[in-house]
Design a protein that fits this description.
Number of helices: 12
Order of helices and strands: HEHHEEHHHHHHHHH
Shape: globular
Number of strands: 3
Strand content: under 5%
Protein name: DNA-binding transcriptional regulator, GntR family
Distance between the termini: 43 Å
Helix content: 55-70%
InterPro entries: AsnC-type_HTH_dom, GntR_C, TF_FadR/GntR_C, Tscrpt_reg_HTH_GntR, WH-like_DNA-bd_sf, WH_DNA-bd_sf
Structural class: mainly alpha
Number of domains: 2
Strand order of the largest sheet: 1-3-2
GO molecular function: DNA-binding transcription factor activity; sequence-specific DNA binding
Keywords: DNA-binding, Transcription, Transcription regulation
């Protein structure tokens, strides 16, 4: 169905940062870009609004961005769901319902996340970490939990990109002349201590966020000067867009760092799942989510 194809492509473009927070999405431009009529595009935008990725405004349909309070609530729910699916996955493993191939896929994602972190590639570590958590959700065999996690992950990714862009501008890491890219590890190191104080302290922030959903304060591949200084995204082109603007929502609270214990935390979770130990999986996932 054309509406399904339009939905999938627009969702990917928003989560990838091609349409950053605050970007205006017009039916005419999107229909032209996708080579289809406005009717499936209109349906796709309606579904994206249901997912919380876009909303209607006086400027038309724009890519939405959670404010600090909503992001905090989203991370709390995401953390709880990650704990739940780890427990459910262990129960299914105990019942012999998980294939060895599925477990290997999760273990490979964890190993790739740790390897990426060790070599200082925050962007790759973040992506593999996200993939691992989704694979665990698939192992849980609960489609409702998986759908909820996907929606939360998408919205938190929009917030992560917007926060990374703001941090880059605040720390002077952008290049007003053009398209300088910022390495996530360097960016995390440059975020001033005042950020932690303004949000209740770095420890409080980390304990409140899900270790997987928000890890990696990087903006690799993002043109950090694509948005105006006030953080409000302009009208989005129908072409691939780079940048991560904002619309006055999530601030520095969404700028995370990667835990050096990420690999060990992953191993504890996967070992408990592989052993079919629901209680141990629940505990390991909870420690990972809440620090």
């Amino acid at each position: 169905m054309q509406a399904d194809a339009a939905y999938a492509r627009l969702r990917e473009a928003i989560v990838d940062g091609q349409y950053p927070a605050g970007s205006r999405l017009t039916e005419v431009e999107i229909a032209e870009m996708l080579g289809m009529s406005r009717t499936p595009v209109r349906e796709a935008l309606r579904r994206l609004a249901g997912d919380g990725l876009v909303r209607a405004s006086d400027r038309g349909v724009i890519v939405d961005l959670m404010d600090d309070e909503e992001a905090r609530h989203a991370r709390t729910v995401r953390a709880s769901l990650d704990v739940l699916v780890a427990e459910l996955a262990a129960r299914r493993q105990k019942a012999g319902q998980i294939s060895p191939a599925a477990m290997r896929a999760a273990e490979e994602a964890a190993a790739e996340a740790e390897t990426s972190l060790d070599r200082g590639d925050a962007d790759a570590a973040y992506r593999h970490d996200q993939r691992l958590h989704r694979l665990i959700a698939e192992l849980a065999g609960n489609p409702v939990a998986l759908q909820m996690l996907d929606r939360l992950a998408d919205r938190l990714e929009v917030a992560r990109l917007a926060a990374g862009s703001r941090a880059a501008r605040a720390n002077g890491t952008g290049n007003k002349a053009g398209k300088k890219k910022v390495n996530g590890v360097q960016l995390a190191a440059k975020v001033p201590a005042a950020v932690g104080a303004a949000t209740g302290g770095a420890d409080a922030v980390l304990s409140d966020m899900n270790g997987a959903a928000m890890n990696g304060a990087d903006v690799n591949g993002v043109d950090v000067d694509a948005a105006p200084a006030d953080g409000v995204g302009g009208r989005a082109s129908a072409k691939r867009l780079k940048g991560a603007g904002g619309n006055g929502g999530v601030g520095q609270l969404a700028v995370p760092v990667l835990s050096p214990e990420l690999g060990e935390e992953h191993r504890r979770i996967l070992a408990a799942i592989a052993a079919g130990q629901p209680a141990a999986a629940w505990l390991a996932a909870r420690e990972h989510a809440h620090g």
